[in-house]
Design goal:
heterodimer, A: mainly alpha, MetI-like fold, 2 domains, about 80% helix, about 0% strand, B: mainly alpha
Chain lengths: ~300, ~260
Amino acid sequence: MAQVTHPAIGPPRAAPPWAGQLSWTWVGVVPFFVFALMFLILPTGFLAVGGFQDGRGHFTLRNLLDLFQPTILSSYLISVKVSAASAIGGALIGFALAYAAIAGGLPAWVRPTLMTFSGVASNFAGVPLAFAFLATLGRTGLATVLLIKLFGFNIYSAGFNLLSFAGLTLTYMYFQIPLMVLIIAPAIDGLKREWREASANLGASAWEYWRYIALPILWPPLLGSALLLFANAFGAVATAYALTGSSLNIVTIMLFAQIRGDVLHNQNLGYALALGMIFMTAISNAAYIRLRGRSERWLR
Amino acid sequence: MNRGRIGAWLALLFGVLYFFVPLLGTFEFSLRYLRGHYSLEAYRIVLADPRFTATLTYSTVLAFATIIVGVVLVVPTAYWIQMRLPALRPVVEFITLLPLVIPAIVLVFGYLRIYNSTSVLPLTGTERATDLLLMFSYTTLSLPYMYRAVDTGLRAIDVHTLTEAAESLGAGWSIILLRVILPNVRAAVLSGAFLTFAIVIGEFTMASLLDRPAFGPYLQLIGANRAYEPSALAIISFAITWGCMGLIQISARGAPGQTAGAH
């Protein structure tokens, strides 16, 4: 009986302090959420809504359809091409480097050294990186001149141009490769030595080990990291702007010009352009997070 | 096995070349200012340029302000999530990752629209207010790195026990945060701070679109108009990045939990 009467008395007394404590607890995270609202959610939300409005604020899908006009579509395509090429190249080379340093039987000092250098190189982006590549692979750059002097090979007469798709991809890979080294290292650490030994004991060749053991475990983090690199390159502005000016029309440079001076002559189309960029980076990041979750099962 | 090791050395050699050749190229280029022989003339000209000092100072001050605001925002939040609201952790983590998902140029586009001079909060109205907006922009950019660093640091120490011990000695919340929690995550905060510094010091997009005289837009301006000075500036920028990363390594050696008195 006591058990029945107790809850009957309980709630009115228990509720106020419980509610009071809860609200006090929440106060602690208010500054963070106010900040997030002011500098992340509202600004992005404004563009997202604006992308679906016409000049007078009515709902329309016109802007999104207008993204498919040739100039805008081609700028998205160049961006996708440069980002994909630098992501795939960066992922492959970065993986090879990280694997060599971690599991390749190199001296023990190689790994920490590589990690430190990767930390520096992955942060050496933007305007100075463009200068570095101009000084190296530009028409009078060190590598260009050395190749002519030593081998009589002029990369520019062979069709190379730093201010082009290939040049921008090479430049982006300077920060993509080390970023890949940093994010793929934990996955390579997770490859247990026993798996390789066990497969060797059972008579598997190196190829069979990679085909049936290592790659099935590594492909989610590999693909996921490549997607992260893709998003990383897709949103980059400064390197491309300093390198090519506006001669290579990638989407960030188009958006830069739009923000500066409404070159599309339609504010709402500009919002849609930004929305399209968020769409691309959001998809690749979401896929990255999913794939990372998938691989964690094995790589603990 | 031996063949594998040769492959590993080759991969490493490729990496070393990719990393060092552009640096060498830049350095060599920066010495070419005077025709016929190498000199440090380009560096002399850059360092003597008053705009170099002015923009670098501006960006440095902004970086320090960003770090302070970032720490004040992130440390209490991460602490509170760990102590009282663990259920909210996924939401907060998701928000802190958003600046990696939304490109900086899109964020600043949004700021320019909602904080323009006719809006409720005209942060682009005056120069001082725009400086403030740029600082908050940078706080946003560094949020993923700062939050992850601090969160990792907090997980490595026993937040609950420390808090209870401090409370039983009569400490209030501000004392707990400032004199108990903060010193214990010092290494994590410092590594987040140096990374923030490396990001802010040469940032171009946001500073340029908000039209503030920061180091990044200055670099771009010199790059568009000069031949040899940009290389000298690139070497200087690289040295700054290298310095920040070196300081991260050094600060990471003081492992969390043994900052006071252990050395």
